[in-house]
Structure formats: structure tokens, C-alpha cells
Amino acid sequence: MDGICREILKVPAEHTGALIARIKVMSRLDISERRLPQNGKCKLKIRGRALELRVATVPTVNGESAVLRLLAAGSAMPLDKMNLSPANMENLLDAVKHPHGLLLVVGPTGSGKTTTLHAVLGYLNQPDRKIWTAEDPVEITQPGLQQVQMQSKIGFTFAAAMRAFLCADPDIILIGEMRDHETAAIGIEASLTGHLVLSTLHTNSAPETITRLLDLGLDPVNFSDALIAILAQRLIRTLCGKCKEPYKPEEKELNHLIEQYGTEDFKTLGLNASEIELCRAVGCDECGDTGYKGRTGVHELLVGTHELQSMIYKKADLSDLTAQAIKDGMRTLKQDGIYKIFKGFTDYEQLLRIIAE
Fold first, then answer.
1. What is the pLDDT of residues 141-158, one digit of tens each?
2. How far apart are CA 160 and CA 144, in angstroms?
3. Which residue of 143, 144, 210, 341 has the fewest CB atoms within a 10 Å radius of its CB?
4. pLDDT of 219-239, one tens digit each?
């Protein structure tokens, strides 16, 4: 629940084999193959609601294990529900207005990258724009988009899809993931030839993404020209709206948060330190006595300014790129998390779960 394991029920050992077999049948997987991992999808109707599940089975020493991931079937989340800070929202909307270039959303698995990209596509989805997406798997569907499912078994990879897309005259292209040099190189080529290219990458922070892509062997000249922005994100558990308790923080606690945010940067938030109220977890029936319900995004938006582009061109160090991005107005994941603590969405304990000190 919200990224934390919770024990709901125990399946007796004698029933696990039958249960896994049933899941495999529903997902159209090979039930006789128990030695290799398998992936599939299935659709169910539970209490009148249509659900779509992504299923992954893995052989373990105690028999097979199945992981069922609930897909966000249906429409994309609107961009204004993403809980971006006002500055990040403004910069992101400016970034997606570019007619061509590269916009990346980065973070670990399950940090909401696809959700964010589809929110951006939902904002850009107009009748006069042709949008193609290459995804593996296609999780969120939107009317007006040409969505393509990858089939790596037959050689239909992200790179192959990208080459096909360039002949199909799209305005906006979404590549599910830039896994290798070839996909990244074609993506950058597409962004320089008049397409807005959106993609994801598994990196820890926005500046780190630049060094990762340069390490993949990309041409720094083309990459620096193509880059519009990089949005790094995480999901943080939010306090339960029914039972959270506002309180006046002690001076020591408040000073620690302000210090962690950066004393000078804190002044730009326009918050009065003496009036700040924080919230703490309590626990009720609604949230299963945990004090937390739901999750929200914590973001770090790096904008490809001229100064930053010239540093990419020169293959600058990660520390220099980070310093320049902060100088250009980037707020780190930790700062955005602390801003959300000041706003009463979450607490410091949850921030430490997703961000190292």
C-alpha cells in the first residue's frame, strides 16, 4: 500500500501452486514452464469494475512467485493534479511549448514517470498535433494518440519503433525508455529534426541524467542542443486527510528544516517562519491506523539553459552541472520535499524514506 509492504492474508502452502497456475492461465502464460520468468497481462472484472493487471512470474527456491501490478486503466491524470510546485509547473509548461527538443522524466521504478509523461501528453493532445508513443507495455491509453506496443521477441524494439516513427511524420514522440545508446541517439536525432521527444530514464537526479547519457556515448554537441528539460521525481507518502494533526513546531525542528532547505532559498518561498504549522501522523480506520494515505510527487526540474548547454558541450563534472542548475533556479528533490512538509502534505520521516541525507 503506497509503496510499503502490508500483510493482508496468508495462502496455505498446499494452495499456492494452484493459485499461481490460475494466475498464469488468466494472463495467457505457459503453465508448464516453471523454470523461466514470464510476463503477461490480464483483464478482470471485480465488483463491476474493469481492472487491468500486469503479471510477472519468477521461479524461486520455494516455488514460483507472482507479482501483480494494477495498471492505471483509463484516462491520464491531468497535469494540474500532479502537485508540482508553482515554479516547477511554470517551467514545465514553458518547456513543453517548445516545437522540438528533448524532455526527460527520470527516477527509479514505480516513481510515476509514465503517469507524468501521460499527463504532459494529455496537456499537449490537440487535434492539430500528431502524437506517437512507443511503450513497453502500453499502460495508459488516451484517445488521439497512436500508441505502439513493443515486441522485443520479434525484434520490434524502441530503436526500431523510433525509425518507423520518423517516416510517419509525428509532431510529438514518446519513447518508453532510453535503455541503450542506439535508442538515445535516435531520440536525440529526432528531437533535432523538428520533433518534441519525451522519454524516461532510471537515474537518481536530474543532473546525474546528463552524465549518464554522455557515458552512454552520446555526442555532447547534439545532446546539449536537443535538451529542453529533465524532471526527476519520487513518490512520497502523504498524511491521511481524515486524521492528520496540525501542530506548531519547536524552534529546533523548524530551524533544522529551514537549514536543510537552505536559509537563502527559504526566503524565496515567501513563508513567514513564525506562522508555519506542520502536520503529524495520527492514525484512524480510514488509513488502517498508519496515519498515511495515498502518495504525491516530489520533483526536481532542471532546465536546459544556455550556460548549462555549454557545460554539457564541454563534458563538465556532475558537481559543476548541479551547481549551475541550482544557480539557474532548480530546487532539489530534498528542497521540494521540505516545501511539501511546510504545506502540510507529509512529514520529515517520509522524506527520509525516499531521499538520502
1. 889 999 999 888 899 999
2. 22
3. 143
4. 999 999 999 999 999 999 999
* 25 membership: H or E segment, kind and range: helix 13-26
Report which residue type is found at 271: L
Per-position DSSP letters for 211-278, written without gaps between them:
HHHHHTT--HHHHHHHEEEEEEEEEEEEE-TTT-EEEPPPHHHHHHHHHHH-HHHHHTTT--GGG--E
DSSP structure class, residue 103: E
Is the pLDDT at 357 greater than 70? The verdict is no
Contact 42, 55 (CB under 8 A): yes
Which residues have C-beta within 8 Å of that of residue 281, sequence separation ≥ 6?
239, 240, 243, 244, 290, 291, 292, 347
Cell of 8: 493482508
Comparing C-alpha atoms, which of 147, 144, 177, 175 is closest to residue 162? Answer: 175
Buried b (16+ CB within 10 A) or exposed e, 229-238: bbbbbbbbbb
Separation between Cα atoms, residue 14 and residue 240, nearest integer Å? 38
Give the distance from CA 299 to its chain's centroid.
9
54: enclosing H helix or E strand: strand 49-60
Q: What is the pTM assigned to this prediction?
A: 0.90
- Return d(Cα 227, Cα 219) in angstroms, integer: 12
Give the pLDDT confidence of 17-28 residue by residue, as tens digits. Answer: 999 999 999 999
Based on the number of CB atoms within 10 Å of its own CB, is 119 exposed (0-12), middle (13-18) or buried (19 or more)? buried
